[in-house]
Amino acid sequence: MSSQFAPNGAKHRSVRYLSMKMILGCGILLIILISAITGMTATAQQTSPEPEKSAVSKVLDPALEKINGVLGTVLMYNVSGDTFQKSVYDEDGEPVVDPDTGELKKETIAVPLIVVTLAVGAVFFSFWYRWITIRGFKHSIDIIRGHYDDEKDEGEISHFRALTSALSATVGLGNIAGVAIAIQQGGPGAVFWMMTMAVFGMASKFSSCTLSQLYRQYNPDGTISGGPMYYLDLGFRAKGSFWAPIGKFLAVMYAFMVMGGSVGGGNMFQANQAFKAFSDTFNYPEKYDWAFGLVLTFLVGVVIIGGIRRIGAATSRIVPSMCGLYIVASLVVIGVNYEKIPESLFLIFEMAFTQNALFGGMIGVIVTGVTRAAFSNEAGLGSAAIAHAAAKTDEPVREGLVAMIEPFIDTIIVCLMTSLVVIVSGVWDKKELADGVIMTSAAFDTVLPWFRYILTICIFLFAYSTMISWCYYGERGWIYLLDHFGHGAGLRSVVVFRLVFVFFVFWGTVNELTTVLTFSDMMILSMAFPNIIGSILLAPTVLKIVQDYWRRFKSGEMIPDR
Amino acid sequence: MNITWLPKKSVVVPLDFSDFSFAALEQALEFVDSPEGIHVVHVLPRLSPMEPGVIWGTIDDDSRRDHAIQALKDRLTGQEYRGITIEIRFGDAARQVARYAEEIHADLIVVPSHGRTGASHVLIGSTAERIVRNSHCPVLVLRNAYR
């Protein structure tokens, strides 16, 4: 080590930071090189019967399938037994007769445990907090507009900024591709159940984000650490020594799952669908998926590992505008087909309750709707609570009220736009449009051919901002876990997680949708278990502060700053 | 520079807000004539570029430094701490501590060791160990006596 030191530390810091960046840069380069080599091999092997599949996905797909199998057993455990059955239909829509018995062939409609947990949790929170989601709607808008901001409160950012940061993670491909997938799997009726679930989901979101403000960790440098792992840990500790180990268990479980969810739904699904949209729009050959993967890996890497803050900041801030652009584009498509709006809305409503066996009957449609709603607005998963913990406020309930708007914007506005676009344009029952996002872009195509370029740009930016935000969620899980090994250990070692995350960007791009989607679903939905169970157990404490807040709000002692 | 048990002119104590590190400070106070010889250093790791406060520009190194200094001052209120120098550095803890000690020509660094073993040792490493390797002056590593 050199013994020459300048008297002030500033110079050292920048030098030190640079060398750190160099090491990390080499890390990214290594990942890119390995990926490139495997990608090249794939291109070289194009004579094989399946030329469109690269060698990477051939190796990785079976691995993912194994993980899916294990997770699926627990998450997808069918709680209904064989109660719900549906007839099996062949390709022509004729019922299939079982050759042995001569009766109509029946299949069980599975009601996965995780879907029940999400739905029961959301309904419970709605009633438990006495429908504050409806009562407090106007108040929520006032808070977001900054009428109750106080610079002196502890925290990092204002209510509005916290909402924007959380939205940049939730508004992603779940709103564009996810809706198309819901309609493919559950028919237009699934949209109705997505909306219904979103209304209840607002209460789940309210609960998570209130808790994340109530039990957050103030770091010595003025930053805040929060989210389900912190409120499960600290909240249960506050309940007493009997509860502390339970809370710790749930918190650790959550921390693992948020890391999984971050590489699944927050990363691979986004990368996969962004590539699908890109290759479809620009006729980009699928066999070069690895090249697109490398570019995307690089773009994510420069922010999360290279530490180029400006790009991260810009993408996070741009999301509301992209949202607006997407809504305007959707309104144009819907406007052109305005005469079909009533029948489309009727179709959504009608198909929600009819026993349309093609989509698994009413129960099947509900299951699809609930799953896709959770995937799009993350209500009940507790992920947004990580971002909301950073908000400047001394009233936990206030942040909950801000956060509950997310499912409203995300599902009730943006997802409704997508579903109307897909339905009014008439592409929804086209079987050949198999890949979620391609259906949405075909729907945009019916009006103006260049609309798909706007859509592709939107998709790319949504996917990109979602990946970056979700990397943050995932690394908070890592930091929470590693901090048990000493103060600051998590943040010091977090680069390990980031390198893994960057690798998964690539993995997601080169994988087929089926395995990727199952893996994403499993990882992201499993986060609901510890979060909802923990939030229900902590609900009595939260109810007290909610009622106290509401009483003070109604009494007029909170003076808004208009 | 020789290590003797004579009073030291300046002793560096890295504080990470753990109980171990405050115990190390107590120990270090015994090596100096007055608390003015004690230089407490707290090293803040780099923040995530996706941290909400970083994205919105409401948190930066200056605000973190001010907060950390205040947090340390709040912990070190007693008479016995009067005159202690507080320094905040950013980056890798071990290197920054060693560098700071060299800059102020410290006679000794007193560090607690968490005594990590196995996987966590590989993953996080021992900051104490790395301070020893990077330091220009003697380092006193306190073992788990305060656990």
* Series of secondary-structure elements of chain A, N-terminal to C-terminal: HHEEHHHHHHEEHHHHHHHHHHHHHHH
Please report the number of helical segments of chain B.
Answer: 6
Look up the CATH topology of chain A.
Sodium/glucose cotransporter
Summarize model confidence as the mean pLDDT of chain A.
82
Largest sheet of chain B: 5 strands, parallel
**Major sheet strand order of chain A:** 1-2
Largest interface: A-B, 46 and 49 residues
Total domains of chain A, how many? 1
Global morphology of chain B = globular
Number of strands of chain B: 5
CATH class of chain A: Mainly Alpha
Structural account:
The complex is a heterodimer of chains A (562) and B (147). Chain A has 562 residues and is mainly alpha-helical. Chain A has helices spanning 10-44, 55-75, 113-128, 132-135, 137-144, 159-170, 173-186, 189-214, 228-239, 244-281, 289-304, 309-336, 341-353, 361-377, 384-388, 396-403, 405-424, 436-445, 451-482, 489-493, 495-510, 513-526, 528-554; strands spanning 85-87, 106-108, 217-218, 224-225. In chain A, the strands form two sheets. A two-stranded antiparallel sheet of chain A has the order 1-2. A two-stranded antiparallel sheet of chain A has the order 3-4. In chain A, strand 3 and strand 4 form a beta hairpin. Residues 1-20 and 39-51 of chain A have low confidence and may be disordered. Chain B has one domain (11-146): HUPs (Rossmann fold, 3-Layer(aba) Sandwich), CATH 3.40.50.620. Chain B is 38% helix and 18% strand. A five-stranded parallel β-sheet of chain B has the order 3-2-1-4-5, sandwiched between helices. In chain B, strand 1 (11-14), helix 1 and strand 2 (38-44) form a beta-alpha-beta unit. In chain B, helix 4 runs parallel beside helix 6. Chain B is globular. The mean pLDDT of chain B is 83. Chains A and B meet through helix 1, helix 6, helix 12, helix 19 and helix 20 of A and strand 2, helix 2, helix 3, helix 4 and helix 5 of B.
